[in-house]
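ENTRY TYPE: paired fold submission
RECORD: A
CONTENT: sequence, then structure tokens
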Amino acid sequence: MLKVQSLETFYGSSQALFKVDFEVGQAEAVTLLGRNGMGKTTIINSIMGIVPPANGKISFAGHDITGMASYKTANLGIGLVPEGRHIFPNLTVRENLVATASNHLKAKNPWQLDSVFSMFPELAQRCNSMGNLLSGGEQQMLAIGRALMTNPKLLILDEATEGLAPIIRRKIWSALAEIRKSGLSVLVVDKNVADLVKLADRHVIIEKGKVVWQGSSNELAASKHVQHSYLGV
């Protein structure tokens, strides 16, 4: 589904990524883990064409998307839930969801308003509320719903539950588990390892712009050394 090969990205003269390699398979959930500032968001931005890579190759569903414009990448089937949510503050919940809704890839059972509202009843209750009046948890639900309404093949979430109350985090993890069951591939950035090992198939740890470890959920859960060395504060 997604293949990143020898990815190198710069900000001006400063190199942020060093030959990053990883894959996300069909209907697979993979995480990008690491402390703050290690390059996880830069990887996502490179995939989405927000920060064009200097070297390497990014392939998605048989297409070379290296440096491709973000809207073209989205049209190929990548849905992004960005860090900070970035919902439209002056649009209602309903308007946020339908503003970018599409089914370019002709999904047989596309995500629509009813299916998003079924997953997140809180949004149905606030469907006529403006985006800037929602709580942080509601905004994250809306950002996920907005991405699903594009009917992607791959859903990318950057800091999926950052800053959310525990009860809201549980709702987000529950929703992502349901999304996985639908056959959607998922790439997640988050810090809640205990929840991620329950959700994901494999994990990729980033340290100073490099991949320093890859493995399964069982391997990560069993390796306290890896967790302490690369994920501990």
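RECORD: B
CONTENT: sequence, then structure tokens
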Amino acid sequence: MHNLLSNLKIAVPDKIYVKDPESSDLGKRIVEQSILLINELGFDVFTFKKLGKRIGSNESSIYRYFENKHKLLLYLSSWYWAWIEYQLVLETHSVSCAKEKLTKAINIICRTTKEDSNFSHINEVILNRIIINENSKSYLTKEVAQENKDGYFVIYKRIVQRISEMILNASPNYKYALSLASTITEGSLHQHFLKEHFTSITNCKNDTSLSDFFINITLNTLKI
């Protein structure tokens, strides 16, 4: 199984990048160091000029992979959600009980990220921190409608669809499965942010309480 996963390639919509960063050592270094630099500086302060200096390459070489830093953030976000999706598929496919499968999925969405040795050039722990702090900047733009049509958010939406299907399998007559699924997915990021920065306004102090909170909401809502 480990050998199989080590050959896994996370697929990101190809319209997001100019050249696939997975196709070269420079591309992988751009992704690797951009994660570290965005974490250090914040996305607003991050620039390709600073990244170029960090990787010891011309700024122009980064533009051969990404049109701008917004597209880079979209790439990182898409990669993260694709990585979450593969965990969802891997860890829930053999679970036959609908309720158990749904609670397992919620635990996966809510848990604190651990580094995955299958992807050596990406620090998933730091990337998770970026998604918690910066993910909304990938879609809170004037171009979001067109980017959505172009398929930039297809992986994120597919995760919501997967959880929605699990909700309906557990409670076939529930009318708001997509809304509940998107609330779990986006709400988990918000609660992680609150427990890091605004602890006085959340009861979710750790992974267990965060998962328990969303499982409690879901099971009580579905009455199962």
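NOTES ON RECORD B: The first helix runs from residue 2 to 6. The chain has one domain: 2-222.
STATUS: closed
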